[in-house]
Structure formats: C-alpha cells, structure tokens
Amino acid sequence: MKSGVRHQLAEKMAGEITLSDSPGQALKKWRQSFNIPQGLLAERLEVSPSVISDYESGRRKSPGTAIVGKIVDTILSIDEDNGGQFINKFAKILYSEFDEDVIYDIHEYASPVGLSDFAGVIDATTICGPMDQAIYGYTVINSLNAILQLSSSEFNRIYGWSTERALIFTEVSTGKSPMVAIRVTPFKPRCVVLQGISPEQVHPLIPGLAERDRISVLCTQMDVETIISSLRGKSW
Amino acid sequence: MKSGVRHQLAEKMAGEITLSDSPGQALKKWRQSFNIPQGLLAERLEVSPSVISDYESGRRKSPGTAIVGKIVDTILSIDEDNGGQFINKFAKILYSEFDEDVIYDIHEYASPVGLSDFAGVIDATTICGPMDQAIYGYTVINSLNAILQLSSSEFNRIYGWSTERALIFTEVSTGKSPMVAIRVTPFKPRCVVLQGISPEQVHPLIPGLAERDRISVLCTQMDVETIISSLRGKSW
DNA sequence: GGAGATCTTCGTGAAATGTCGAAGTGCCAT
DNA sequence: ATGGCACTTCGACATTTCACGAAGATCTCC
C-alpha cells in the first residue's frame, strides 16, 4: 500500500507544520530530514530559492494551506524520484506489519462522497439499503485475516477516522461472516461491500442483518488491485 | 496519556485540512463531526460567525497556518469543556491499547531542542556522551513492558518520527537491559534517559555500550508523571 | 406561517502573503 | 584566495487573506 503511506506521511508533515509556532522552522526540519537542498526544492516548485528561504526564516508567519501543501507534496515527489528512501524509512513507522496483512488500504475523504458515485467507481451492485447517503472514507479489508488475526478491540481500527465509511471485505464466500462480525461490534459502517462474489451468491440472511444496523450492502467482482487503484486515483 | 491524544488528533486534523483541495470543506467536516455550531466556534474564537462561514464556503482558498491552528485548537477545547466525548472517541483510533502499557508518552518537536536544555527540564545527570546535541522528540517507555511485550519489529515504534530523540526508560534497575536492546536493534536514539536510579546505580557496562552507538546517557530520579507533565508543558 | 437559530453572501479596508531579483554571508575545496 | 554552492536578507508590488457587519437564505419547531 505505497500510496497510503505517502498520503499519511504528507498529512503528518502538513499537520505538524500547520500547528507549529513557527511553520518556517517545521518546514525546514522536514526538508532537511529528506536531505533536499533549498535550491532543488525551489526549482521543482518553479519559484526562486529566496522564496524557500523567506518561508523557512519565518518572514511569512502564517503561510497558506496551498503552499504548505505544495511544498510537502514536492518534498515527497523528489524523494520518490530518488527511489523513495526516506518515504520508506517513515513507512515503517506508519504501518505496523500487522496492518499489511489485514488492511489493504484505508482512506479518509476531507469532504463527503456520494454512495452511488462510490459504487460506480468500483462497479458495485446494490444488494440492499439506501444509496442516497454519503461516506467519509473507506477501508479495504482481507476478510480471512481480519477474522483470524484481529482481537475485538483491534477490530475497531478498520474504521479509521470515521464510521461514516464503506468497508470493503475482499474474497468473501457468501458475506455472512463479515456481517456477523459487524453485528456484534459496537461501531457500524454506512456501507459494506462484498468483493469477489455475484449478487446471487450473497447469503440470504444478509439483508436482514444489514437492516438492523441500517447498513447498505453492495457487491462487486472487480479485483482487489483494481478497486484500490480506482479509488486512489479518483478525485471527487 | 490524554494530552498526547489531543496533540495527535490536532495534527491529523490540521494535516487533512492543509492538504485538502478545499480546506474550507475539510474545516467544516471536522467542526460538524464534533457537533459544534458555527456560532459557538465563532464566539470562542472571538470572531463574527460570518468569518467561519467565509472559510467553510471557500471564500478564503488558502487560509494561513495560524487560523487553521487556532480553529483546530478551539474545536478541541470546546469538546474538552464538554467532557471530551469526541476526543475520546477518536482516541480509540490513535492509540491501540497495547501502546498504553508500553509507551507512556511520545512527542515530536517541530524544531530542534538542545539536549542540555532537555536534561535540565527533567533534572537529569549526565552519565556519558556529549551534551551539545539536538533532539527532535522523545518517548517515555515502560522498560519492563517494552521488553516483555514488544516484538523486535514493534520495538521500532518507540522511535516515533525521528531517531534524533531521547528515549526515557522508566523504573530501570541498572539500565543494562534497555541499552542491550538498543545495541541489537538497527535504529539508534541520540540519547537514553534512565529513570528511577541514581548515577551510582547505573551499570558499569553502560558507557561502553553507549559509546559504540554514539549515544548520550542520562539518569534522573524525577517521577514519571512529573517528567511527562514537565516535558508536555514546556514550549521551547 | 412566523419566530428563532443556523448558516451564506458580499462589499470593504487594513494587513499579510506570495513572489521576484539583486546583493550579501558563510563554508568548503581546490 | 578565488571560486562555487547553499543559504539569507531585503525592497518592491500585486494579490490575498482576514475580519466586520448588514442583509439574505434555510430549516425547524411550535
């Protein structure tokens, strides 16, 4: 899940810079910890090197979100072009290895995404529940490993930052176990996507289970890699 | 470690807002997910309600880090005054319970902090190594639980975002085990603080172990809660 | 259907950002 | 000590932010 790491790292950097008493110093810290000279950063941003220096020295006390975002993105891009050595170093911190087996991808939207748009992107068919809802994120979960490896408290991690999300369970056989797991768990997602089966294969108990927790259920046969890259690539 | 959660949550919020294509929408999402009306937020920020609306509606395309920080902080403060229900909800996501037993506190500085200043705050004595260094963060670790509970790969999590940090091991007897653990591990901190013992009690092998990895070693008898609150309270 | 609370839109002026380029500092290597 | 590289400082000016308050739009709950 490389792209996931990049995004989380970007968020961490941006957050730290934004909250810092001196955003300039924080900016500098990150540039330096990626071993990037001001000049190169300036070149990639297509601005003059003095601009970078002005920010880092604190002449602009409160830089706008736009440049902070651009600078963070550029720092990461430069590292990616060099093979991503620093991103990979930071990646170890972000994802504990346990996550990689269980959570294939996890993402939060900054603004609501319509459920029917979402369904369209992953080519999903509605099994039950309303489609005029909005979600704030999604999680792609390896169904088997989630049930084998997660303790009940760890199970909550699949919800990321909002329960207003879609949980995509991969390679399900009938979809019954994921729905049961959700039934017995305190948090409820807005939507569950069963990946790898056709509408006819969906277990007949599912609409009943889903209705109790007001969850919309979809299914898709798009393969997991395609789902992840389609969702990642989309800007809503 | 309540304060730790607040900080991490603030960082997450600020990062998401800063990186968003429309910071206004992201701001709105967070305000709403804390169930705070614009009017109340405006009042606490001592600005007129239209200011909030202007931000959220996107009239300001790239708000500065200063206001973003202020808004995030105010949202969190309002929730704290209401008993912190939403902060606690998000806290579940930030800290897996496993962390709480092992990592008492973990913090990153946006700009370098001198090691001797740091030592002063926690009333630490130098055992060996140079003090004219700088660190970018610290981690307070329960020594016993760390060694009992952490697998070798999980051990890396104590480094947070930078290895240029101080690792504070609590309630050590001689300090040997923590130093051995660091010796056999790929990442090296700048500094190790042994909490709970006097300089005379420090195991004689320690200077030798520390020198190999160029680590400065300190010790302090300040109690853990005091250390955490002193470090948290300090703005450098 | 109207009172009230919540939110949006907009004109405005002071202040700050965003960018440039020229000139200056400091530190290695040759 | 003469470059060269990395970085800093600064004046200038166009563009935005920031904050206000008045007026309009929505929604909800009698």
From TrEMBL, chains A, B:
Superkingdom of origin organism: Archaea
Name of the protein described by the UniProt record: Helix-turn-helix domain-containing protein
Record SMART domains: HTH_XRE
Annotated source species: Methanoculleus nereidis
Xref: PROSITE patterns: HTH_CROC1
Ranges where the HTH cro/C1-type domain occurs: 27-82
One Pfam family per UniProt: HTH_3
